[in-house]
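**Polypeptide and fold**
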Amino acid sequence: MTDNSKVKVCIGLSGGVDSSVAALLLKQQGYDVFALFMQNWHDASTTLHGDCEWEEDRFVAEMVARKIGIPFYFVDLSREYRARVVDYMFDEYEKGRTPNPDVLCNREIKFAAFLECAKKLGADMVATGHYCRKITEEINGRTVHRILAGSDPGKDQSYFLCQLTQEQLSYAMFPIGDLLKSEVRRLAHEADLQSADKKDSQGICFVGKVDLPTFLQQKLKPKEGDVIEVYDSYFTDNQQYKFIHNTLESILADNDGTLNMITRYISEDKAKPSHERREKGGPMPVSPFSAEKIAMMSDEELEKLSEPVRYEIEFETETYRSGKKHVKKTRYKDNPFGKIVGKHDGAQFYTIGQRKGLNIGGHKDSIFVIGTDIEKNIIYVGEGHTHKGLSRSCLRVLPEEIHWIREDMKMEIGEIRRYRVRIRYRQPLQDATLVMRQNGLFIIFDEPQRGITPGQFAAWYSPIKDRSEVSTCETSVEMIGSGVI
């Protein structure tokens, strides 16, 4: 039997209920536990509340540590956070890409700078309040650390850890990964922890809830540009859209099958993973696309298939006379492919799939961002959830951006595998075919995906047998790797 008292564990205590219960469980399990609270952000002027939320969080965390009976330490990592996370965010947005700061925070701060600080204080392991599970076992003579989805299907946070390495995982512990959120709240109340009723944090990791354009304007200057609505007719003769349609149709496994190019819209908080829409415990379905036909595609064809439709709509002007005095004015001629419907303050402040903040009226359905042109400072939008510009079926991860959590499962050039993929946190897992080529990793989804966004992370999972009693499904998933879209 392992003597846990000989293992010194540093718990990253944030002041929230999840890390508080993680600390409580470690203490109850006999580990030598100490808490470390990290401050990563100073500027309260950037948050919507305009106050120093971290000060309240630190106070609660210190009270929790005292209640549990563990030492409490404080570390300021704001310099590292700005350099490794915030500056990267600014750089990505300036390029028209949408990064995920929470993924970066885990890779660069919690399991890098914070880990090093914990080790200097004598820690053997570092624990967090993430809803995910870790299994360590010997596979083919080598120690392998595996990340499994959390047992609570509504709180699985494995996605945020999709960039961790085996080295980082060797120090990681996730004490609440087998619990449901309701159980975590119950345990916190039973232990009378000060964080028991504390709301979950929102917004950018360690910065708080912010108005993103205002936050980004610290470094990115506003610049007025046009908002162009793209009509459905644009896609009729667009060569790239035709290529995508014809290529996907040509690789269908069933020559008589029908090709779907539009995402079936269901809000993500109500949607179920594609594998849960089938019989529980069933294997991954056969792809609608033929692996043999995909294998015959050239690298160039796959690359072109992964490229989004580009919007190039030119507007001509005409002069006319208006009013009783026949004042001479200029207006745009009607264009069958689109219309200038508004102005914006900078294309870099918007992302694919965005609906809020556009301030465009006069439409029956919601308006969504379907594309941005940073060089021309133009935002392209489309009306309705079923607009063709919102859906894509294929994406590419560049070779240098591919990351394997399971290094022993790296795909070889030319290899094709079936995985379940998500392209953002809380998105239900989607069935897909992964194709490894010299010019990158290509992900072809069984069903078209809504709002595929450059700069975000795609994470792929493999089904496993799950014998956990708290699991709501007979199968679970292990995260295998990830990459920047």
